[in-house]
Amino acid sequence: MTELRKPYWLQSSKLGSRKTGEITRKLRSYNLHTVCESARCPNRGECFERGTATFMILGDQCTRNCSFCAIEKKRENLAAPSPEEPVMIARLSRELDLKHIVITTVTRDDLEDGGAGQFVRVIEEIRNHCEPDVTIEVLISDLQGRWNDLKKILKAGPDILNHNLETVRRLYPEVRPLADYDRSLHLLGEARKFNPSLLTKSGFMVGLGETCAEINDLLTDLRSQDVDILTIGQYLAPSKKHYPVAEYIRPDVFAEYRQAALRIGFKIVESGPLVRSSYHAERARKILKRR
Q1: pTM of the model
Q2: Residues paired with 135 in a beta bridge
Q3: How many C-beta atoms lie closer than 10 Å to residue 247's C-beta?
Q4: CATH number for position 236
């Protein structure tokens, strides 16, 4: 397959080169990871310039084999959860004076609780070390459908629960072979049932070969679970070994997707070529403050 040439609208901002170096040095000193770096996010300079980052817990190696993702894959002999990681994240969050803290993870199917306990400890340490008005967003794996582990995370009190569907149902066998579309939808619904006041969030990529009809079905499925916040971004293949880009979606089409999502009830929609899961995540604070 001939590799598509990137269009002009996929030029990422050069903003944040100075701040990127500063925050990267701090992350290294605390021995922490961010998904911004591990997943090669095109917006990391912009987000670092605003003093925000998405912490990635439980290491930087994933037990899943999703064909779109740049994070290193490994199924066995992964490092145990670091007991120092939760307090290190809390201390660095306080040092950076973060107001909205996003915690994500590699998928750890090798752990009995899928890493739920580490999420709980991170949330607790942030609450202990940071200002009371700090808001916490967690971007979790599907926990292999273990809803008791999901409830442990929710009982710790995050403000936003995020779980990404990533793509349309038809493409799951090729793009997310170890995940399950209905299981991910079910997780979002279970979170809402457990805590009706919780903000829920999801996101997906376009440009993998999906149709407009499939995207409409995906939007409808997410709203059927009462999801509040949505992110839509262009898939960019990390290398020639990853799933190929089928199409580069024009910015005006992203605008149409945003309007379609708002019409059916999403409260916040970030839709654009370079949008990623945590892009402008702090905007959700406006909704939380009104509650």
Answers
A1: 0.90
A2: 100
A3: 14
A4: 3.20.20.70
Note the pLDDT of residue 46: 63
When divided into structural domains, the chain yields a total of 1
| pLDDT on residue 83 | 96
Q: Domain containing 248: what range?
A: 13-289
In the numeric block, the tokens 């040095």 are attached to 25
**From CA 246, how far away is CA 93, in angstroms rounded?**
39
Distances in Å between the alpha carbon of 78 and those of 82, 100, 134? 11, 29, 32
Check: CB of residue 103 under 8 Å from CB of residue 134: no
Backbone angles phi, psi at 139, to 5 degrees: -110, 105
Residues of the chain with pLDDT under 70: 1-2, 12-22, 33-53, 289-291
Does 3 map to a domain? no
Residues 38, 81: Cα–Cα separation, whole Å = 18
Helix (H, G, I), strand (E, B) or coil at 27: helix
| Segment 42-75, tens digit of pLDDT | 555 566 665 566 899 998 889 998 999 888 888 8
Angle between helices 85-95 and 116-129 (to 10 degrees): 40
Instruction: Assess if residue 5 is contained within a domain.
Output: no
| Residue 171 DSSP one-character state | G
Domain membership flag for residue 129? yes
β-pairing, 33-34 with 54-57? antiparallel
Using an 8 Å Cβ cutoff, are 67 and 132 in contact? no
Predicted pLDDT at 14: 53
- Domain assignment of residue 161, yes or no: yes
Phi, psi of 104 (to 5 degrees): -125, -175
Whole-number pLDDT of residue 39: 46
